[in-house]
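User: Could you check the structure of this?
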Amino acid sequence: MNFNGQNMNKAFFSITLLGCLVQFSCRQAQPPPPPPVPVNLFTVKALPVTYYDRYTATTVALSQVNLLPEVQGYITGIFFKEGSHVAKGQKLYDIDRRIYEDNYNTAEANVKVAEGNLKQAQQDADRYQYLNNNKAVAKQIYDHAMIALENSKNAYQSALEALKIASTSLAYSVITAPFDGTIGFSQVKLGDLVTVGQTVLITISTDDPMGVDFLINEKQLSFFYNLQNTRHRSVDSLFTLIMPNNSLYSSIGRLSVIDRAVNPQTGSIRVRLLFPNPASLLRAGMSCVVRVHNQDPTPQLVIPNKAVVEEMGEYFVYVVKDSVVANSGDAAGDHTAGKDQRSLAFQKKVQLGAILGPNVIIKNGIEEGDIIVSDGIQSLHNGSPIAPSGDRSAQTGKGSKQNAQ
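Assistant: Sure, the predicted structure tokens are below.
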């Protein structure tokens, strides 16, 4: 009996020891919760702002043509400076005129001959008309005289048309500017042979005013239609232009054309502005930025730019939410459970608007009064516990108005 009792005591001790070991190992296997990340917070507020919507744009000439010869020959004269401004009708090239001058002289002489023949035929016809009225000439002779007169008239008209053709060819041997504009590099040199309708001589484009094209989203169409309909109303700095060197162009543009249709693949539509260009500072094909002055008086949500996280082309902020979590006691063996209130940061997708220096406008995704993380976002992930540093009330968005340049 003592032997069995000892065995039972040993078994009970072993089971108790095993249970303690299991409980200890389970408690050890559970990782401690991550420590809160120290951050600064920002309370979102709506503020009245003055800013510009920016669009990537390209300068375009309103008219641009490649000059091609209408007659064949050798280039005998070039009368312009490449890259310069030319006036409508200004002489640009001479094509060898000798053969066209000869053709013109020949055609002019043929006209004189045809004119003389017509005069003679008219005199004969008048004479035979008189004789025929008095029954003094054979009918056949009279008829032949009338036919000869008609042929002379046709020959004269043919000679005049040939003279026009020769005159046109002679005129085409001189190439002139079709309109005021800027010319590029000459594609031919003195002595080059040019072919009708094939050889490009030079390209000329209008330069004042200069068009500036950019794309807008179809959702913005109504806004630009309203601008177009009220374009006669004076609006200071409605359309301005940032040059490739980031300088502000001195003249203000005006809305000219909204394209006829939206691109169904991209949902965008082209808009054209016109800018004065008296000094030829704008050249066709330049990349620039159009600024459209936003006249919406509605306050906008403005947050620090550093509070925004970009991931694969999308933008997020961390919104703070207070959460109640269970407290399971400490590791020293205090098994009394309680509840703690902790602040957690949750990622939320937003749509950005204009950039206002160190700040940015938020179009949607958050609301006024939301509390977001402004510093320390590099160490956060969705649902991270945070430890706000400083007084939250001192980190709110204050100020009456912000401006964007």
